[in-house]
Design a protein that fits this description.
The chain is mostly helical. The chain has 7 helices and no strands. Helix 1 runs antiparallel to helix 3, helix 3 runs antiparallel to helix 4 and helix 4 packs across helix 5. The radius of gyration is 18 Å and the shape is globular.
Length: 134
Amino acid sequence: MTLIAFTRAVRSIASVRRVVSVMGKYGFGPTLRKLGGSRRDGGIAEAYRDAPMPTRLRAAFEELGPTYVKLGQTLSMRPDLIAPSFIEEFKRLQDNVRPIPIEEVQQAIEESLGASPQHLFHRFDPEPLAAASI
């Protein structure tokens, strides 16, 4: 196995572990165990303990990031695939997504452009105008 292949495998394992961890956090641990995934309960996030499944899955998609938000957005337009309760909840991903933390935005700018936003731009407002998936 080459170093590149090994690095990709490690990243893939880390990605799967993150998905399993987040899904467990939103109460999907029993389902993951049935699929041969998680062997331990991390417990459901307190805010979502009594939430219906569509709400918990939408919140998990949001936490997992843009790829999963885009999946939810796509599913929200497919009444032939999923139940109306999921459609309604996933529609919230169309125009009601949490913005990423400003620290992550600033770090991405610094890594991409080599300096902090405050040094690169005349004005940098930390309050987002909107949030979207890419």
